[in-house]
């Protein structure tokens, strides 16, 4: 039931994977081959095979592992991926969840956990990327696998949460407790993430309410100055000039030594008071007609190509016809009572049985 209302893969996919007969390289049609871009198929511990795109930036010291939002795939995100790599001067690995694009299998919460683990292992084993050089980026529903992976990686350089969700059920109903059938319980996991976390959210988001991003930021251990974009909705945050500027600032900050970084980062009390104007920014520039041919990236300073996908990134309340009171009543016998937030760490650590995270990945 959760998968039915949570995942909306594009149909048909926006791209195809083809093998160049002369070089043997895997290509993403209809996009032309680029020397700095590699198309990959990655096996997961769930038995599926996911499609991924790796964008190299010369002499980059940071790699962005990007988990996209719903109702899109890496074909629609391709131009944005290449633009982000150029503007942020990072390598970037984007991937499709099981059942999305040309990835096999069906989308589900636990399949997406296996998907992001496969992408991370590819960075380590194929490209030799170290954990401390990786920034995880999760957009909308992609915040679920992003936060889950971050729990097991204490030396991560940073995490970016773009229009994130508190949990799947909380998008539809303002519940105050966690139920066993809920998915992507970010609200319970984010307090245990140890690296710097940047949260970006639009104040007029009609898919995932602005309060989700704000509450997640408040629960972070190591907060970075958030970006609240006034008037921003769920699908247009990349159009705001401050979006790329703030990301650049975050990347520069996490590149510093930990001691210098902690001294330069604003405290929780000062984050919203020292710069009142930082909370809200002007409305975005008018988007260019997406039907026009894109200009070359070298001519587009501070501009990003926003992917063309329908803004149904995750389940909307109107798509769920069952009254919550009835749903809750029917599951009282199996729902678990939420423990206090002070016991969250004990629950998660007990569930993982102190097994080394990498062993868990490789054991499958």
Record keyword descriptors for this entry.
single chain, 364 residues, alpha/beta, nine-stranded mixed β-sheet, two-stranded antiparallel ribbon, 11 strands
Describe this structure in words.
Helix content is 30%, strand content 15%. The protein is an alpha/beta fold. The strands form two sheets. Strands 3, 4, 5, 6, 7, 8, 9, 10 and 11 form a nine-stranded mixed sheet that branches. The protein has a two-stranded antiparallel sheet with strand order 1-2. The longest helix has 17 residues, at 109-125. Residues 259-301 and 312-358 have low confidence and may be disordered.
Count helical runs: 12
| Uncertain stretches | 259-301, 312-358
Quote the beta fraction: 15-25%
Number of beta strands: 11
Order of helices and strands: HEEEEEHEHEHEHHEHEEHHHHH
Helix content: 25-40%
Q: Span between N and C termini?
A: 25 Å
> Overall pLDDT, averaged?
80
Largest sheet: 9 strands, mixed
Q: Structural class given helices, strands, pairing? A: alpha/beta
Instruction: From the alpha carbons, calculate the radius of gyration and give it in angstroms.
Output: 20 Å
Shape: globular
Strand and helix map with partners:
Layout: H1 2-6, E1 16-19, E2 26-29, E3 37-43, E4 49-55, E5 63-67, H2 74-88, E6 91-95, H3 109-125, E7 134-139, H4 143-151, E8 158-162, H5 168-172, H6 186-189, E9 196-202, H7 210-219, E10 222-223, E11 227-229, H8 241-255, H9 258-264, H10 324-330, H11 344-352, H12 357-363
Parallel strand pairs: 5-6, 5-7, 7-8, 8-9, 9-10, 9-11
Antiparallel strand pairs: 1-2, 3-4, 4-6
